[in-house]
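U., I forgot to send this yesterday:
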Amino acid sequence: MTDSAWRTEKPDTRFSSALQFVLGAAWMLIAFNVAPGVAQRFPAIYAPLVQETVILLLLLVGFGMLASRTRGATPASRTMGLVRRKTAKQEWALGVALGWGMVVVLVLPMVLFGRLHPIFDWSPTAWNSLVLSILVLSIAALAEEIGFRGYPFQRLIEAIGESWATVAMALIFGLVHLQNPHATLASTLATVLSGILFAVAYLRTKALWLSWGLHLGWNVSMAVLFGLPVSGVTEFGSVVQTGPELPVWLTGGVYGPEGSLLASIVILIGVAVLVRTTREYAWEYNYQPIVGAGYPMDVAAPAEHSKMEAAAAARLAPLVQISSSTPQGFNRTDDIPK
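Result:
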C-alpha cells in the first residue's frame, strides 16, 4: 500500500492493522527468546543452527495463524512476503550479488591500507564449519526478513503508511542489534540504514526474495568469504579468519566492518544502486492501473426516452431510395452552349 492509498483507509481499518502489527511483534519477541533455550539442549556445534531453525519455524507458524484469522482468503505465505512468482529466483540472485558487491566495496579500503590480516585453514574441519555457517546464515537471514520485513511490517504499512513504517522498523532493527557484542553508535547507525535498505528492497518488489538475498549476500560475504565478524558475532567458521586492526572508524574493530563509519556510506550508496537496478520490478509489482472516475458512459437510456424513440420509429414511413434524376447515358455537359 502506498502512502496515498493509506490516507484513504478508514480509521477502524488502520486500527485493526496496528493491532495486528502489535500481535506480530509480540510473537516475534517470543520466538527470539524461546529459541535459545531450545538450542541449549543440543551439542554446541549445532546449537546456532537449531536456534535459527526454531525461530524461523515459530515465525512461520505464528504469523500463519494470525494471517488465517485476520486476512481471510489471502494465502498466509503472501501475507509474510513469500510470494510465489516466476521472478523469485532472479530477485534472490540479484540481492545476493548486491550484498556481495557492497561488502567488497566496504572491505577493499581496509585491504589497501593493510588493516586486514587473514589466516587460512584448509582442513576438513574448516570446510565443514564453512558449510554449517552458510546454512545458519541462510536461515537466520530469512527469519530476520520474515520478522522485520514480513507480516508485522506489512501490517504497519497499512496502519501508518510506507514511509513511517520503514523508519519505525529500521529503528527497531537497529535497537535489537544494539544488544549484540561490542555494539556502538556507529554500528547502530549502520544497522538502521541497513534496515532501510532491506525495507526498500521489499517495497520495490512487494516480496522478500530480494531482501533475503541481499541480507544473505552481505552476511555470507562478511563471515565466510572474508572471515570477518558479522554484527559483533565471531562464531561463524570458514577457511579464512581475519582480524581487523585499528582505526575503528575504518575497520569497525571487534564488531566487524559494520561498526565502521564507512559502512553507513556504503549502505547509502547501496540504496541508490538498489533503486536503479530494480526499476523493472518496481514497475511490474507496484503499478496500479488508473480507475476511471465520473459517470459511466454505458448506462441504459431512461425508460421514457426509449418509449419516445419507439413511438417516433412507428410513425415514420420506410425510407425509399430516390434514384438520380439524370437519365443514364446523359451527360449534363451536353446542354452547355458551345
